[in-house]
Design a protein that fits this description.
The chain is 31% helix and 21% strand. It has 526 residues and is of the alpha+beta class. The protein folds into 2 domains: 2-107 and 181-411, Beta-lactamase, CATH 3.40.710; 434-524, Lipocalin, CATH 2.40.128. A 9-stranded antiparallel beta sheet has the order 19-18-17-16-24-23-22-21-20. The protein has an 8-stranded antiparallel beta sheet with strand order 2-1-15-14-13-12-11-10, with helices on both faces. The longest helix has 24 residues, at 401-424. The protein is globular, with a radius of gyration of 23 Å. It starts with a helix and ends with a strand.
Length: 526
């Protein structure tokens, strides 16, 4: 999602690590890492996490930290399920590689061959776009296009239809702009070429060969009371838990995040530490099972070939000078870290975070998942990643990654709060009568929103979402809690509505969280 990545591009650092020639002994690294994980979790408010390390075909470290639900006592262990969000893309790309081997589709097939109604804002590009273009995120769309529609609870067909109203920025086939919705369309293509459900494809082509017994798709619909009741006695049907940060404190999200499961091929998988260890071994072993490859080396290497430069310099996610080269293949970020080649991917949506990396030359993999997120809330997995690699690769300059992330985030939030306070003092009362804001406003992409006056308070009404109270903060500006509006937004998302300053009734409004499409303005229609 656009805000997810823009958030951590802001964290710029500068240093020059000096790396040792030899790797550190893992027996020395792991106790230090474990202490750091516990300290970081406490400082960041992370309720629960799993860290898995594999090397030379074996799981050498697999440990659960913390608890499943904040404030409760049920501990995380290797079987605890976590929503892995965009790590799903790595599984989906691997599944497609298997289908390419079987001749059921090809990387350079046009998407329109399988989805004739596929339509973006540019008809010609829509017809030319290939599976490879989508999986390598070089579509020409703005980054994270359509994600706000998903966060608002739109259905998959509605979102796909709405995508044609989001203009392309250029750079088709050349420029990296990360996408969630388009990768999600691969699920429909997989089902079409195989005649089987997406879940059946995963089970037969991926889960069974890799030996994954605890990985599954999540459910977009929140569980009923009786489902929760019976799941309490059925360990294998246990569901992941979700948390965010709200007003500076960790908050449990009992309804989870249904937006994860709208496009299951993009972000819908749930997995455990046990299975993530098996998955990394499977990938490092080039998908060989009992000595026989399940996917050809040719097509695995297609995934691991750079197709586009990510073109991000610095930042805590890709620390400057630790990471000097950053590209994307299909389902993998391809980069270096302190001179070592790494394949990695991350995931994060409201309530959950995940990270997985492979160091092929060392036959090593590391996975980190946490039940606090998304990326606008926590970069805990990246902090643990960097700490581990610094220790393992003998990077001489010691950096407290978790602390730096926390301080940077706090500084940004304080600047935001200070700026808003200064603006607030310039317009302590609404610029006009509340009834002058009341009405129905429409946007070409998002449709209609209604502003009503209830008991002398403005209320925002949109589709079937909960009615959301607006609080005046400056002149024609009102604010609301992002998660009170839609569960797909993060606890750190502060919603703002700004009305036009026309004489008489307001004729337009803008909502800061709804800025996709050609024109973000909502115009009065009633």
């Amino acid at each position: 999602m656009k805000r997810h990545f823009l958030f951590f591009w802001l964290f710029i650092v500068s240093f020059s690590p000096i790396c040792g020639k030899d790797r550190a002994e893992l027996s020395t690294v792991l106790p230090i890492l474990e202490t750091y994980i516990n300290q970081a979790m406490s400082a960041e408010g992370v309720p629960g996490a799993i860290v898995v390390i594999v090397k030379d075909g074996k799981v050498i470290y697999l440990k659960g930290f913390g608890v499943k639900i904040y404030g409760k006592k049920d501990s995380v262990d290797k079987h605890t399920p976590f929503a892995i969000a965009s790590l799903t893309k790595n599984f989906t790309n691997t599944l497609i590689a298997r289908l390419v081997d079987q001749g059921k589709l090809h990387w350079d097939d046009k998407v329109s061959k399988y989805l004739p109604d596929f339509q973006l804002g540019n008809a010609k590009i829509s017809q030319e776009m290939t599976i490879r273009d989508i999986l390598s995120h070089r579509t020409g769309l703005p980054g994270f296009s359509g994600d706000t529609l998903n966060e608002l609870g739109w259905s998959a067909p509605e979102i796909v239809k709405g995508m044609k109203k989001i203009p392309l920025e250029g750079g088709f086939g050349k420029t990296f702009t990360y996408q969630n919705i388009l990768v999600g369309l691969m699920g429909a293509i997989i089902e079409k070429v195989t005649g089987k459900s997406l879940l059946q494809n995963y089970q037969e082509e991926i889960f069974q060969p890799a030996g994954l017994e605890e990985t599954k798709f999540g459910d977009r619909n929140p569980p009923t009371f009786w489902q929760k009741f019976f799941r309490a006695f059925q360990r294998k049907d246990e569901q992941p838990t979700f948390h965010d940060i709200f007003q500076g404190k960790t908050r449990y999200l009992p309804q989870g995040n249904p937006a994860l499961y709208t496009f299951p091929a993009s972000s819908g998988l749930i997995s455990t530490g046990e299975d993530l260890g098996k998955w990394m071994i499977f990938q490092l072993n080039m998908t060989r099972v009992n000595g026989k490859p399940t996917i050809s080396e040719l097509n695995l290497n297609q995934m691991r070939t750079p197709y586009v430069d990510v073109q991000v310099q610095g930042g805590r996610q890709w620390p400057q000078n630790r990471v000097t080269r950053l590209q994307y293949g299909m389902g993998w970020f391809i980069h270096d870290y302190a001179g070592v080649d790494v394949l990695s991917h991350m995931g994060g949506m409201e309530g959950t975070r995940s990270f997985l990396m492979l160091i092929p030359e060392d036959n090593m993999g590391v996975a980190i998942v946490a039940n606090l997120g998304g990326m606008r809330v926590s970069l805990f997995p990246e902090a643990i990643r960097s700490k581990f690699l610094d220790l393992y690769l003998n990077v001489k300059e010691e950096i407290d990654w978790a602390k730096n992330l926390r301080v940077d985030h706090q500084d940004l939030m304080q600047k935001y709060i200070t700026g808003r306070r200064e603006q607030m003092m310039q317009g302590l009362a609404p610029a006009r009568s509340l009834n002058d804001y009341v009405g129905i406003y429409e946007n070409d992409l998002y449709g209609k929103v209604e502003i009503v006056n209830k008991d002398n308070n403005l209320v925002l009404i949109y589709r079937d979402l909960p009615e959301t109270k607006l609080t005046h903060w400056n002149g024609n500006g009102f604010q609301f809690e992002g998660t009170a509006f839609a569960s797909g937004f993060s606890g750190t998302d502060s919603g703002e509505i700004t009305f036009s300053d026309d004489h008489g009734k307001s004729q337009r409004l803008m909502i800061n969280l709804l800025r996709e499409g050609e024109d973000p303005i909502f115009n009065r229609v009633h």
